[in-house]
Amino acid sequence: MRFPPSYREFLSISNGWLIEQQPPLLPVEKVAYLRELDPEYVRLWLEEDYMYQGGEILMTLEPFGEGETFACNLVDDIPTACLKNAVAIGVDWTEKAFLLLDPTTVDEHGEWRAFWLFRYEGPIVTNSFARLMEFMYRRNTER
Length: 143
Prior knowledge:
By secondary structure, the chain is an alpha+beta fold. Helices cover 31% and strands 19% of the residues.
């Protein structure tokens, strides 16, 4: 599989990483479909009673790019096809949090939608791996 440009650029510099308070980014040889890493987790997320029910969650740091949101509703923003095809590039097994790339949503630059999926909160959805990393960095530095 050919990954999106911003993720390939990251891999040319670092083959994964471990950062406190973040899901670690996996080395490329451990990247896999979420459905293969944790099929039960995907099944549970797709059941309506397990989905985050708190409505939209807003985590705004500044205005976002076209087609990008950090306010999202799992049912509307992450369709079933996405979860079934999502590529897990980062995993925190303790917190059941996943950094995912969505090969079903690709922009005109070849970037895949990226998101951080949590067990008990609404996901953070961005339009690229680079933007998700920027968001996570800025979120941690503002704490």
